[in-house]
Amino acid sequence: MSNSNESTMIEKILAAHADKDKVAPGDLVNARVDLALGNDITAPVAIREFMRFGLDKVFDPDKIVLVPDHFTPNKDIASAEQAVALRSFAKQYAIKNYFEVGRMGIEHALLPEQGLVWPEMLIIGADSHTCTYGALGAFSTGVGSTDLAAAMAIGEAWFKVPPTMRFEYEGKLPPYVGGKDLILYTIGHIGVDGARYRAMEFVGSAVDNLSMDGRLTMANMAVEAGGKCGYIQPDEITFEYLKGRLAGDYTAVYSDRDASYEKIYKFDVSDLEPQIAFPSSPDNVRPVSEASGIDIQQVVIGSCTNGRIEDLRLAASVIKNKRVHPEVRLLIIPATQDIYLQAMEEGLLKTFIEAEAVVSTPTCGPCLGGHMGILARGEKALATTNRNFVGRMGHPESEVYLCNPAVAAASAVTGTIVDPKEVI
Amino acid sequence: MIFEGKVWLFGDNIDTDAIIAARYLSTYDPAELAEHLMEDIKPDFAGLVSSGDIIVAGNNFGCGSSREHAPLAIKGAGVSCVIARSFARIFFRNAINIGLPILECPDDLSHLQSGEDRLQVNLDEGLITHLQTGDFYKSAPFPPFMQEIISRGGLVEYVMLRIENER
Asked: What is the rounded CA–CA span in Å between residue A399 and residue A376?
């Protein structure tokens, strides 16, 4: 560890929010929270805990976001009751960023799209994939319901400043290889606890050339390596994405040239194949060439990882004028209403429906085995989602393979896992 | 605080979907959740585990989803303490925040006999003693700040005190 005054982006954001000049890995800090997020599974528990404080107001109603996205549209009576808890709380405490069905989307696609996230923010969410917003130069991390309850009351949370690992990706990515493949490859390389408690900084020419959607995918899965957050420092692509979405100004912060990293990984990704995570762990990763021929019964394209417009465009470009294999169900889930509308206007939904896919309203649904595509015993699914743990999408004896949207679309046509270049 | 209980052994990377599957997340009642504890990886576990028992696991226990339902289910089953070589960070926070005792013990405890061996855990000293053999293991101490949350019974109690002081 150097004794210079140089810091990483994450250290700067944490220091600023804890009113300190500088923080170092291992420091425990109490920091101000700019945004606190909950969903229909985690927020009801947070609300129950918040009520114990006996407060008649939250710390700042404009800094709380509630999104009923997991079991919605309500899958059963019990989940409908949980949605009521969220709705009533939002009304009682005047929380304007409550997104009702019809306006909602999958939270981690919705918040950036709605201009609620910008560089240098400190965001916590009672959802593990809250790490997604690192793609926009924020410090954001998943917490539990009780942390959310405390943040709603006092606007603060405690953090241990994480050591930072730097991941450098050099080279021009081949066709049909993107952010999902970079992050799967990384998780496969370091393991599901390879970045436990660490910040993951993603840099290099391959990252510089990734679109915002691809970057959001990368940061989204930092938690699958155990990471506290994953982030990409703001650049022109970030500023372009934020243009028109934000009302106010923001300051971008960057890692100093001499910042200290616990470890630096360098990957040449110019020959990277599409990556597949085999059951039942996101680090059980192999190139698609080693997965070809595995038969599948369901394909899911969606989720906070890969349900954005670019993902749908990619999938549509692969499946256009083709048909889903007769023994496969293809589920397309645009992550937000805006993405849904955009996909409709661009003709993508027509392409999917003509290919005999199902197009669903936004929901986390099948990703976590909630509803809208549950697997039976012995079934195999290929999904653009983020986890393939035992029983994740249904029966404990079903299996999930993870991949990018192009592989998913191509494989839905062939009925077996396939490299998209073999289908085009 | 001192606990004594039977050991239930689990491996590395036990994820929160394994601890409590998403299909049971339409409740957050600890007793209801406890009926499905570890169901997808050890279907008979809810029937076997009894009050005071101790879960002993490998690395990265509680990885995956942020669901606080996972430590709630463990607490609801009456498990007195979870000992692991390491914890995933959100599970770690959640356990501290809801007052579920956890210990991080660097020693390999995978030789213990699941469902047979009994341990005594002294939480304040971080000392784990095998009741049949007398072997003992030391766990890493929590920083004082976390000890305070634990001693108050959880984060809500800790924050409540601050709110009352500011009134």
From this structure: 10
- Cβ proximity of A281 and A392 under 8 Å: no
Q: Which of A41, A152, A160, A220 to mutate to test the interface with B (most CBs of B within 10 A)?
A: A41
Contact state of B28 with A154 under an 8 Å Cβ cutoff: no
Parallel, antiparallel, or unpaired: how do β-strands A139-142 and A122-125 relate? Answer: parallel
Chain A residues near residue B26 by CB distance under 8 angstroms:
71, 75-76, 78-79, 81-82
| Per-residue pLDDT tens listing for chain A (424 residues) | 444 569 999 999 999 999 999 999 999 999 999 999 999 999 999 999 999 999 999 999 999 999 999 999 999 999 999 999 999 999 999 999 999 999 999 999 999 999 999 999 999 999 999 999 999 999 999 999 999 999 999 999 999 999 999 999 999 999 999 999 999 999 999 999 999 999 999 999 999 999 999 999 999 999 999 999 999 999 999 999 999 999 889 999 999 999 999 999 999 999 999 999 999 999 999 999 999 999 999 999 999 999 999 999 999 999 999 999 999 999 999 999 999 999 999 999 999 999 999 999 999 999 999 999 999 999 999 999 999 999 999 999 999 999 999 999 999 999 999 999 999 8
Q: How many Å apart are CA A7 and CA A13, to the nearest integer?
A: 10
Nearest CA in chain A to B63: A226
B154 shares contact with chain A (CB less than 8 Å): yes
Please tell me the distance from the alpha carbon of residue B56 to that of residue B119, in angstroms, as a whole number. 10
- State the Rg of chain B over Cα: 16
CB B89 to CB A128 under 8 A? no
Structure token digits, residue A422: 């073999």
> Alpha carbon of A32 to those of A13, A51, A227, B114, B143: distances in Å?
10, 21, 21, 44, 21
Query: In whole angstroms, what is the distance from residue B56 CA to residue B114 CA?
Result: 9
A392, A398, A399, A400: best mutation site toward chain B, by most B Cβ within 10 Å?
A392
* A143 → chain B, closest CA residue: B90
Q: Find chain B residues with C-beta within 8 A of A70's C-beta.
A: 25
Classify strands B118-122 and B127-130 as parallel, antiparallel or unpaired: antiparallel
